[in-house]
Amino acid sequence: MKTEVTAKLEVQDLSLRFADKTVLQHISMRIPEHKITAFIGPSGCGKSSLLRSFNRMNELLEDTSTDGRVLLDGADIYQAGVEVAELRRRVGIVFQKPNPFPHSVYENVAFGLRLQGIKQPRKLDELVESALKKAALWDEVRDRLHHSAVNLSGGQQQRLVIARAIAIEPEVLLLDEPASALDPISTLKIEELMYDLKQHYTLVIVTHNMQQAARVSDYTAFLNMGQLVEFDETNKMFTDPSQRATEDYITGRFG
Amino acid sequence: MNKTALIPPIMPKQLLRRRRWYNRLFRALIAVAGSSVVLMLAALFIYLFSEVLPLFRGVSGSPLQPLAATYQANNAELPVVQAGWPGVADFSASSASGDYQLLASKNGLACLFSPASPAGCLQQWSLTDTGDTLTSLSWLTADQAVLAGYQSGRLQQWFLLADNQGNLMLRLARELPAQPAAIIHIAAEHNRRGFATLSADGQLALYYSATAKPLWRYATEITDAVDLVFSANNQILSVYSAEQQHRFALDNPHPEISWQTLWHSVWYEGFAGPDYVWQTSSAADGYQPKFSLLPLTSGTLKAAFYAMLFAAPLAIMAAIYTACFLPAGPRRRIKGLIELMAAFPTVILGFIAAVWLAPVIENHLLALLLWVVVAPLSILALAAVWPRLPQSWQQRCSGGAEVLLLMVWLVLVSNLVFVVAGQLDSWLFSDGLRLYLDQQGIYYEQRNALIIGIAMGFAVVPGIYAIADDVLHQVPRHLTRGALALGATPWQAVVRISLPLAAPGLIAAALVGLGRAIGETMILLMATGNSPVMNFNLFEGLRSLTATLAMELSEATVGSSHFRVLFVAALLLLLFTFVANTAAEVIRQRLRKKYQRL
């Protein structure tokens, strides 16, 4: 990895267990700032769990224990006394299945803003509009801002959820298979969107889709059986992987 | 057939036929069972209705063949005109018992006296001040009321009431709607408060004392009537003319019940004014039964209201805690425990409330009122102090143990409140809060709505909790997770996502609790005092529809007005609970559909 890249997130010897099942084993990696990092690997390899450990979403499941450290800008997010809600504001997450709130489009985007204590209508309007524009959704919903978000199409819902996440200006945006439930055109839009977002945010994406990882990401990590097998620049990973397992997976020999 | 095959390739005909037959038999059985449940419900409603309907059927009457009879006037003694009374005794009416006698002259001058002690008039006044001419005068049964008819067709009812000094006097209770012609005869029914009038144009009208509108009217050709008399069973009304007895058969089984007597305030005999009264029987024979359903309905609603005031917040907050904050294990255990409360026999709850809780609360009223304010504040205080406690403490008391700490804290605070309240009670009020309330005109009964609120609230909590916990737990996880992912605290996720989504379900839960509270009987029967008062005072008792049914159905004569009014109460109860439960079910169905769409 080149030295001029600064690490936004640094994972140090991270292990994760659900009840008595080990999900992640001694993972260490540095996630560069303002880049897109993709996690690939077969189902159940722990890539989603690793992603969720970056904003402590794993804690919502019962019986989880985490060892090791995750540093965000050099500060351990697992330290006692860390305000989890504030951490999640800085590290936003978008899930596989779009989960808009059963409110209007506008209220969905304003939700996180209101949590931050922003109340002035004019300011809210402005921020909602800019978030929807950044998520490339503004033109499609400008006339139905106050209609229910549940009636949007799947692709629109997913972009709305992204707009909702970036409205509160997170530093890192985690995307957990954001396009796997979408049609190809919506997928393309999401991918274009990720490319635009890269300038402002550090993106980490989990994907099953090898082409997608190759298309959008700058760095790729390959995980297998809870271990980090290989982590490098995407170009290198897909053309000249250093591990045999990576090559097997990328070329479709297993997984 | 292949003998080696264990299963024959084709099912034997016989087996097939038997299977088909069983199929048909059980389908029929299930259909019969299902439809008989529905039929039984329908039959229940129909039975209740059939018992109630006769109450509201109108009075019918028909003329019978007139008899030739020579009318013999009662050779009553000529009334003694009382000393000092200026009137002429044109009319004289003696009460049924003979204890009171009323003399009146045509111009309305009247004198009430008691033949037992004829020392002048008890009351001497003018019945009318409009210059009308008095044309008829009669006592109603049981010495309590007098009717006066006039030339103009006016009809007045006067009640015998005691004034402030305890002197008996007649007071004008109501002016009944005037008839077109002079009222020349008034006859009172025996043993009940009905009466009939005959006016100069031959119009017969049948009334009941508590209702202004005539129950029955009939135009006759009789203009030479000399008297109007009811038969002993009140079923035949006779109009005597000089040579004939005109008879009318009346079918009037329930004159005392009408929409007005059930739901409006009625001025009953012996009362200072119109009121809502439920008093169905007494020791005296000539007693006028009073059937206002309003005190009972309001009693039921009052008890349900206070029970809900106690139970709904507790149950819903408990549900929020278990459904939104507790992990699955403890949630399951607590849910089971609370639902076990529902199996608690209510007779024991009523017993404990009446025998133990009521006296304890009476003695520690101030402490209880203080506790209601202090306990939540003390919890908030603990929450405020919590982050400032040493880290080691916090860690030791996490994962469920903080609840134990809270319990210990609450016990400490409660003890303190009780000690302080004991001191405060004697310091603030010289004779204690209870007597102070009495002096302020706030009547305190030992068995009151406060006791009921707590005891019945306890019985209602499990029902509300179970549904509230379900609907909160069924809020789609991805939505609360979405809120948390946006930097919401768990509390914010509950308040902004779970509660608004589950709100209809919480309302449904409260409605189910309300239905339960309205239908609850035993606790109310045992711990309310059962006084049919009509107010919403927390410190006074009440009488509910359910408890009234439980107490009075066994003593009401089958087919009597009392009996049928109890059926009205039963119908009312069914209606209340049916509406509450149906509304709850409809809301829950709609919510379930909404959840599915998310």
> What is the CATH topology of the largest domain in chain B?
Methylamine Dehydrogenase, Chain H
How many structural domains in the coordinates of chain B? 2
The CATH superfamily of the largest domain in chain B is: YVTN repeat-like/Quinoprotein amine dehydrogenase
Question: Largest beta sheet of chain A: what is the strand line-up?
Answer: 6-7-8-3-9-10
Question: Structural class from helices and strands of chain A?
Answer: alpha/beta
What is the overall number of helices of chain A? 10
What percent of residues of chain A are in strands?
25-35%
Evaluate the radius of gyration of chain A: 18 Å
Instruction: Provide the CATH superfamily of the domain at 7-99 and 171-250 in chain A.
Output: P-loop containing nucleotide triphosphate hydrolases
Low-confidence runs of at least 5 consecutive residues of chain B: none
The major pleated sheet of chain A works out as: 6 strands, mixed
CATH level-two architecture of the domain at 7-99 and 171-250 in chain A: 3-Layer(aba) Sandwich
Principal-axes shape call of chain B: flat
Provide the low-confidence segments of chain A as ranges: none
Assembly type: heterodimer
Strand content of chain B: 15-25%
CATH domain class name of the domain at 7-99 and 171-250 in chain A: Alpha Beta
Distance between the termini of chain A: 26 Å
